[in-house]
Write a structure and sequence with these properties.
The protein is an alpha/beta fold. 31% of the residues lie in helices and 23% in strands. It has a domain of 229 residues: Metallo-beta-lactamase, Chain A (4-Layer Sandwich), CATH 3.60.15.
Length: 383
Amino acid sequence: MLRIIIAALVGAGVAAAAIFLVLQEKPVMEEAAPVAQNAPAATSGPSAFGSGTTTSLTQEEWDSNPATQKWQAAAYEIAGDDPDLVFDAGIFCKPSRGVSNEDRATIGVPDSEPRLEPFGAPEDRPVIGLQRLFDNFYWIGNSNIGVWVVTSDDGYIVYDAMNSAADARDIIVPGMEEAGLDPTQIRYLVFGHYHGDHTGGGHYLQELSGARAIMHWADWELYLRAFEDENPSGSFRRMDDMTPMTRDIDAEDGMEITVGDVTATLYQMTGHTPGSIAMIVPVKYAGTEHPILLVTAGNHFRNINAFIGGYEHIWDIAIRRGVESVMQSHPNTNMNLLARTRYVHDNYPPEINPLLYGPERTAKYLNIVRACSRAYIAAVDML
């Protein structure tokens, strides 16, 4: 039988939660676990996360694999009758892992409060602009990709920089100015990974603000190497500024960066790229600080080593630190559904902020993503 043991840890006035999954052999399910209401259909195909992310795995292969079905059942057992978590299991427990463009375009909404209107991510990538999500935390972008802005009493941390200098000039800077934020006061530019859809506006913002750029050493070298190619490939084809950023800081696992009254912590999450990094940052809402996790590519690991050494690494840290939300720069995969962010911004400050799951539900969420990932690993015989 599968048993879920939830241990709530309370210390220093901060609630933390850890969920330990004890898995033993279980009879093969006769039917697949239920699909969440309005969850996107299982698909394969091009992904928001660049080349190399398609899968030839079919739904029939997924459904007929006993180990895959065991792990999918585990994910839904963790979710229980929580409509948000059931919806989340429906996103990740499928052959595409929820990252295809079709998944993100057709995504629904959970059957929970507050009631939300679906907001897919269409192929034409309309500009959404600024969205205020917490007192000191904003997202700015289009329906495909954006940046996070963390404010303090002495400048800002910006995580990622969209596709191009044009995006930085025409979307990021005007968005910050709309909120009364001076883009010249950016102190740090943090990059989850080196791909052009995350770094394309970096040089423009670095020149504008004098901010120090942070990336893992491996991704710095891959980023700089891309500028030596006369025919850029992948997401670098969309870049309109072929002058690279100045290499400032090599991110290290557990590195802290402080701007004014905000301290963020960077962690390695190798997987999507060799040097992918995540960030845990305290956001402020309703007079309280809440640690949240920013990941780069929610569950897109390329091999078993990356899954264990990168993704499980950051998920375990996040659970120990009691994070209360998990988001990434590409909307409509992790908790930052466009439907949720639009609701929060349009009703700020909302009575219920659907982006905050709390530490116990976020720990469950991460273990659902873990179980769905194990289902995928079994389905493709990765181990």
